[in-house]
# Entry
Amino acid sequence: MRITIVGSGYVGLVTGACLAELGNKVTCIDIDKARIAKLARGIAPFHEPGLNGMLKNAISKNCIHFTSSYKKGLLQSDAIFVCVGTPSKKNGAPNLEYVSNVFISLAKNIGDHGVIFIKSTVPVGTNKKMQSLFKKYNKNPEIKFASNPEFLKEGDAINDFKKPDRIIIGADDSNVQQIAKKIYKPFNRQTNRMIYTNIESAELIKYAANSFLATKISFINEISRLCEKTNANIDEVRQGIGSDPRIGAQFLYPGLGYGGSCFPKDVQGLIRAFSANNLDANIAQAAEKSNDLQLQFFIDKIKKSTNSSLRKSNILLWGLSFKPETDDIRESLAIKLIKAISSQVKNLYLYDPVAIPNSKLELKGIKNIHYLQEKYAKIEECNFLVICTEWREFWDPDISKLQKLKNKQIFDGRNILDQKAMLDANIQYNGIGR
Ligand code: UGA
# Structure
């Protein structure tokens, strides 16, 4: 099939690479010409395991092309996936400007047929609004519309695309279902993952799914705070409740809170959808509030345990990305923590396997920050260690090196270290709810 992807962010590129691998003729359109030039050489603009290899392979087989021209990119496409971003505006509402611009460009350049699937996360009702906008410029009844929300996790996006839990197709036209079925057939062989809904349900499924997962995280984080005030241990409580299949063990790991480009934005988006319909978003609001409290609770713990010595302390901090296997620092709790405490400490020494370049841009105004090439460098000069992201290389650190920390004290914001091993090594350990 001929497939066009508009927007070469992580959803667009993963979709494009996975569909090209099947032999479809895929063209990715992006208005960023520098990005297109890099992509033509098989280099993604962000870190996503496996993606560069897939892109290079598809390029060599002539199955994927990159362009900034809608005219070239749309040549007789059977399916067009809109994957541009919908970042939050200052007031918290999603910015739909990019999606609107894409629909105008599509209307002006599309061929005589095709289904336009919206993969971008958009508020319920957006698809219908975009259809009206499109029809101002193009009245061809052969162009169809659908919502096809994406459920990729950064860092594991290719796996999620190839082994989906579900493929949601929201459409009012049964021909659209047939085209979607054909596109997704190779990912749908063992069990039927297709779920057909109306357009509005598909849009809401995305917000509801992300907000539910965010709520689950906020719930366990709140329980972890209670654990710290009692003699309960969050690891035991998590296991005890997660083993009930009605609750489930996934997304029940306590930490510094949820971050990234999706959960905070989508919880906020759901709250707005309730408000726009004169309803209270009690649960989503509580999840958001609890998430903010979690980071503050951790910061207060650091302040309390280091007493008045914080101002004179050098901090070693591991993990800057919002989660492992990505260089994405959007809404990263590590970055928020650094911004909150940098003025209250002497120096901050930061290490991350891939997110340092993005962090440098984000934190450039802060003077007492130093970046490390290696995670133990400067450990002798640091008073304590803070772990913010659970990269694999942090799980089993060299204890003899950790003992070089001046105060022999660790704040583990992801509960990845073995608490007993730390205590045995005479290192003061502070986890989450442990
Ligand atoms: C999330 C969803 O998991 C995807 O299904 C969805 O497609 C994506 O948003 C999106 O809307 O595009 P992502 O933001 O990449 O994916 O990352 P997650 O793995 O979901 O993690 C989100 C945040 O929750 C991270 O800060 C992570 O550290 C935190 N988290 C996750 C926890 O604190 N505890 C957990 O048990 C799980």
